[in-house]
Amino acid sequence: MEKNILSIDIGTSSVKISIVAIHNDRSNSFEIKSQSKCYYDTKRIRANNLPSNHSQQNVQVIFETIDDALKCMEFNVRIDSITVCGQMHSCVLWNHRLFVDPFDPNNLRFDMISDNYDWTDGRCDENFLKTLPTPISFADKVSSGFGCASLFWLKRFQPHYIDQFDRCGTIMDWFVCLLCRLDIVPISIQNAHAWAYFDPIKPGWNLDILKQAEFPIHLLPKPFESNVIVGQTQFQWHSIIEPGIPVYIAIGDLQAMMHLALKDNPNAIVLNMGTSAQICRLLVDKDGTLRIPRKSQLPVQSYDYYPFKNNEYLLVAPSLNGGNVLQSFMGFLQSTVKCLTNNELTREEIWDKIFHKSPEEFSNHDDNDDNDQSDERFISIKPTLFGERHDLSSVFSVNITGAKQPSLFNVINCLCIELIQNVFNMMPNVCETIRNNFNQKISTKIICTGSVMANNPILQRSLLIVIKRILLNENKSENKNNDEITNLLTSSLIDIEYVDKCDADVGCALFLISQSTNDTGAMIRRMDVDRNLMLFINGRPLPASSSITLSTIQIRNRMNGQQIPLRIMARRVG
Predict the structure, then answer these.
(1) Distance CA 109, CA 95 (A)
(2) Could you tell me the pTM of the whole model?
(3) What InterPro entries does the record point to (predicted)?
(4) Lowest mean pLDDT: which of 27-31, 56-60, 333-337, 407-411?
(5) Confidence band (pLDDT; 50, 70, 90) for 366?
(6) What is the tens place of the pLDDT at every residue in 407-447?
(7) Are residues 69 and 22 both part of a single domain?
(8) pLDDT > 90: what percent of the chain?
(9) Do 135 and 212 form a contact (C-beta atoms < 8 A)?
(10) CB of 53 within 8 A of CB of 122?
(11) Are residues 220 and 333 in the same domain?
(12) Domain extent at residue 490
């Protein structure tokens, strides 16, 4: 017995869709039956007349890309449920009248939908952020690109524009509402936390604070646990989506990817590099004693705690600089080559030429860089092209010392090293763990996810250099030399695994189905419902008890017998 899940990842630059067959056994084994990936039209996804620090995406282009990706799917199975994940900080607004007319992919009213204000948006500068109230949550720092920050800015500077909308959510929430024709916008606790002004422990929005700050609280989506079914598809879309398919609440792409990455290695450190970069590790509150500190009280404010599932959290250093910096540099090389030679090279062709160079051509910035007196350290790069949330003033810079002229390969090598060094610097806790494990002869598992790391030998080599720097920084007093460190790096004490296929859409399906399966027989707390509604369990009316253990629930309207979704809070028994 297996469940076939259609899972969709609405990313920053592309849409990925998979059909994941999950076997209904204790192993939770799975098989990917079909996949497709379509990139946004780069010429249409963003408007050209925006200020350089504004980052918003055309929702019509996103929708058309989802449509194209669905067309590319090959399948011969019936879809049992749909899961959605994506860019969790994003914010899109729409008018409820959008879903009044029957669904027609060719005539969707995009004039009733705002752009998608994504996580890279920088319109909320430091001065603006200082005018915002402090959230009541362990995440008590607000950054530009967070959903609530974007709404604050729109309310203050474009009030007439925002007044035409009466709904908002992440781009994934909008898509879930589209599929199910929902009037109330459901948002997962994961994504609500990523918007700021949300307490995931309580859980709930900081409504009193937001009201006092004249925030448009009527727009806020309704938060739910990150494992509930919020509705059913209401229409036929191509041959793959039929009416009546259950749709789960949308979750964050980071949590989805981490669920897959940590599936067999819960104690591993995960380094992910996609458009951005993150270092993550899992924290489990086994006995209820974990107390998460406020971000403002952390000694280093470059990392965050993210809600994951049940009593688990993710400790995350989220850098805004990853594959996007390398892409920008490749774009610079493209334009330089065209300007000087009138020849056009694709970014793939440039990388191919770089990868085929011999390792010796990178030797001017190699493993000997721990020697502070080395005359080979003639180039340094600060790779924060897109700044960082904890340091809005951070910029990209290149510093060349001495008369020695660096080659293109020195620059690329240094850039890759410093990109990885930057994200490790944001998580001192991880660096300390690596050093402590190393000194105690305990193996450290590092899982590198994403095709950027898996397919780039320069980045892989750069990771080894950064780990060596971490170890040498601790062990200089012990006179450990380079050769000894290098030998230990290649031993089992530092276990590095590169995972090309750790797709968020696959992780999303596994995450939501595993949570749903684990909560079978959960204790459902009876909630207030309209007096015209009656609860049924397996066709029988629900007794008026305060709580009851359920295997299945359906809710019917007494007036016409129509089935409608039941939204509930669930807690595992025992």
Answers:
(1) 10
(2) 0.82
(3) ATPase_NBD (IPR043129)
(4) 27-31
(5) very low
(6) 888 899 999 999 999 999 999 989 999 999 988 989 999 99
(7) yes
(8) 58
(9) no
(10) yes
(11) no
(12) 323-503
Average pLDDT over residues 282-297: 85
CA distance 38 to 382: 32
Helix/strand/coil (H, E, C) string of 59-95? HHHHHHHHHHHHHCCCCCCCCCEEEEEECCCCEEEEC
Beta-ladder partners of 388: 391
- With beta carbons less than 8 A apart as the criterion, state whether 321 and 276 touch: yes
User: What tokens appear for 21 in the block?
Assistant: 């067959």
Identify the domain boundary among 194, 223, 249.
249
- Give the tens place of pLDDT for each residue, 132-145: 999 999 888 899 99
Cβ atoms of 227 and 563 within 8 Å: the answer is no
Instruction: Give yes or no: residues 532 and 468 share one domain.
Output: no
Q: Which helix (H) or strand (E) holds 462?
A: helix 457-475
CA angle 47, 154, 301 (to 5 degrees): 95
Over residues 243-272, the pLDDT tens digits come to 999 999 999 999 999 999 998 899 999 999
Inside any domain, residue 318: no
Tokens of 515: 């949570």
Hey, is 361 helix, strand or coil?
helix
190/204 Cα distance (integer angstroms): 12
Give the 3-state secondary structure percentages of the chain, helix then strand then coil, rounded to 5. 35, 25, 40
Give the position of tokens 């309704």.
222
Tally of domains within the chain? 3
6 plus 72 within the same structural domain: yes
d(CA 89, CA 207): 19
Q: Name the amino acid, one letter, at 381.
A: I
Residue 104 neighbours by CB under 8 Å, 6+ apart:
none
Cβ–Cβ < 8 Å for 94, 165:
yes
Residue 562 pLDDT > 50: no
Distance CA(391)–CA(387), nearest Å, equals 7
DSSP sequence for 233-271? --S-BTTTB-TT-EEEPPEEHHHHHHHHHTSS-TT-EEE
Q: Residues 102, 108, 110, 115: is their CA dihedral positive or negative?
A: positive
